Amino acid sequence: MRVLERPLVVSGELAWLGGDRLQRRVDHPQQETATIADGEVTQQRTGKSPRHFSLSRAPQLQVLLDSFVALLSGDAGRLQQAFEVRLSGDPASTWTLTLLPRDAKVAKTVASIAIDGVGKQSLCMRMQEADGDLAIDLLGTLAAKMPVQPTREALQALCQGMH
Amino acid sequence: MRAGARATLLIVWLLALAGLGWLVAQRLKVSTDLRSFMPAPTTPDQRLLMEQVGDGPGSRLLLLAISQRPDTRLADAQLAALSQGLASALHNDKRYSQVLNGSFDLGALDPSLLPYRYLLSPTLDTQPLDEAYLADQLQQRLDDLSSPAASLLKGLLPSDPTLEVLKLAERWTPAKSPEVREGVWFSPQHEALLLVQTTAAGFDPDAQQLAIDGIRHAFEALPDSTAAKLEFSGPGYFSVVVGAQTRQQADWIGRISTVGFIALLLLAYRSLSSLLLSALPIASAALAGIVALTLAFPEVHGITLAFGFTLLGVAQEYPIRVLSHRRAGEDAVQSVRALWPLLLTAIASACIAYLAFYASGVNGLKQLAVFTIVGLLVAGFSTRYLLSRLLPVRVRDVAQMRWLARARDFVDRLPRPRWIPVLVALAIALMLAFAPGPFWQNNLAALTPLPQDMLQRDARLREALGAPDVRYLLVLQAPTEQGVLALSEKLQPQVDALVAKHAVDALELPSRYLPTVALQRQRQQKLPDRATLRHVLSEALQGLPFRPDLFQPFLDDVETARQLPPLTPEQYARTPLGQRLAAMLVQRDGHWLGLGTVSGVHDVAALQALGESTNGAVRLLDLKAASESLVAVYRTRILQALLAATILLVLTITLALRSLRRAWHVLAPMTLATFLVLAVERMAGIEISLFHLVALILAGGLGLHYALFFERDTGDPAEQRRTLHATLVCVLSALLVFGMLAWATIPVLRAIGLTVSLGVAFHFCLSILMAPHASED
Questions:
Q1: Is the pLDDT reported for residue B312 higher than 90?
Q2: Do B29 and B298 contact (CB within 8 A), yes or no?
Q3: Which of B442, B357, B411 is nearest to B644 (CA)?
Q4: Contact A58 B76 (CB under 8 A)
Q5: Beta partners for A115?
Q6: How far apart (Å, rounded) are the C-alpha atoms in residues B394 and B392?
Q7: Nearest CB neighbour to B146, from listed A1, A26, A129
Q8: Taking the model in full, what pTM does it have?
Q9: Span B328-361, pLDDT tens digits
Q10: Are B545 and A40 a contacting pair at CB < 8 A?
Q11: How many A/B residue pairs have CB atoms within 8 Å?
């Protein structure tokens, strides 16, 4: 990891507000809400004035938005437009959907995104950043299984359904 | 003169003209800076105005809007890409001192100046770099890392954990920013907005044209720019538009009236060769006038040339008089000889009238005087000594024309009651007394108004961008540059209070960009040494997951900042933002001025109150009021010069005619006609501007000629008919040229056209009605 000694663990909720709007709420360790709407990100922390910046400055969010909206709305066209899509594994049991951003500017920050699932359920979202850092989202029921001292390997094992 | 000698003379003359033309092409440097056409300022505010008109930070701002063309659909992202492309294309161009499009730009701080962030940012004033502060900041950075802003900040983190660079970037973005979409400013009307500050002065239309062309080219070179349209606003753009509009209208009117003028002369003299030859004195006058200007002045003002050519219109009379006074079979030289004493009086008196301009003390008007006086003398003398030798011998005597004889009879039979002057004078007095509205027009901008939609767009963009007002400036004065910055720092809390009270939307002071050396030293002293900072940092990092060696660049930068010599405006001037500061700090007469730009003034009195207890060190400058007072001074100068010219004129005419009574017959109609024009225009609700005054002077010059020639007593009815013919041709040609101008839609052209046309008509009628009756003598 580039700047940290040990992984950073946060928990909260991701919500699709319809259209191109997404909300990312963090409850722990610090309250924070980030809302994407109309190409702008608004970041709100308790006791602080909100911070605004353009979506194009936060490629991770751009990727999150594109993949989430496409997956949740079942819009394969949109997914294909934003990413090069690869599917590995067995759609009926464990599978991994790998998304490579097509936009060169986005790819400079986010190298790839991998979604792991079992059957009809998505378990994990792994975002590989271009500088080597990795962000792993444990989704749904898996979120409760976040270890106290997570390691990259342990999380990857979790995601690939080896629980 | 034999044909051979005549041909030689013509060739020599043409060669001389070509030589003058070559000289002009070599030496003529035309300046378009309006300031050289303004009078020398007298009050401190006027002097500042002269420097700031066009040169102040506000007037050098161009407001740009990129929008989609009506027939296309462009997403915000595409417009934003165009905005970014344009901004980066203009960034390293010398013609622009600042380009802002809302994208948050770390590049604004030169990399070599990066360690200066601790001296420039106000953080240390209230907050030492101690353990508690660092721990809090590091915790916040940790939160940032898990937030969507992570990629924004990850690169900055090792050297700048307290984000001073971002604080500076925020401090330096305009106080009231438009909405940011796709990383750049957008207006509510789906336009990407940019602010460009030009290096060139705002009211230098040629330099502004170059700057605007540069932006257009940069824009057109961008991919996809064809689907979008780029619009401009701001004082610099307006000066270009007004100049182009005026020139365009003057050009087409000029073309039509030139054709009419040529047709009129052909009809009057039925000789193409006479017509062509009579153009030579005017051409010589114009060229000689310009050469004289290039010899006497380093730069010639564009307005001098425009006004000069207008005033030179008087000189067209000289060849016309000669042509009309030709007798059948008589050599042109002989005709001129008979005419010459009177022509010389006319030339001398016109020169004296124009000499008044020289006494005005305004550079542009001095140039005008040199140009017209040299031009008139050259036109007069070349008509007398050159043209007369070239004109064909065989001509038609206009005195033989039957309609002219009838016209002369009509004129001679007109009643000339002695009470006419009294009646006219009374009418003038009444009209002037009861005329509506203010007498003088002090607002120069009213003469070159901008299209309403352009003004609306400017107001809209200015509002959206929070761009500074061009009317008000807050002026800070101190003996030294640092003194101005110190004053600016001291004033900042009061200014903040005014903004909070909504007396003004924003007020940007110079210290916003650069603190005083003293304040930088204070901040420097608050920076801990390396050992202390390392210790404090390691304490603050306790329990946080950052890598231990991550913040080495931070330690290095703080250590560097401790050793740095404080930043001065000179060093700062080399950075992109330094230009911005340089525009706000000016040196004058051994002291320094800081110029605070003001946007959205709601309470002028509150702003004025800022300076009340400072003994003039801080004051609000109202550029509009200062410019109006300047125009009033200007007018006073011209009026004084005119008064002097009038006295000289009376003396000259009286001496030349050697009779007070004859001088009265010449000067009375001229004076009455001049005031009659003034009275009629005032009655029509027209406010009198400088341009009206200049036009009145031209009309006065023409009227003087009419009166001089009508007054001339030759005792020869044929000669009287020739005088009438010459005067009619002169009046008709002047009415044709200036009557056309009177139809222009641009007020400044209309002012000149209407005034001269009215003047010519009144001068003609009054000089006929007040001329001594043929039977009287």
A1: no
A2: yes
A3: B357
A4: no
A5: A97, A125
A6: 6
A7: A26
A8: 0.70
A9: 777 888 888 888 988 898 888 888 877 777 776 7
A10: no
A11: 81
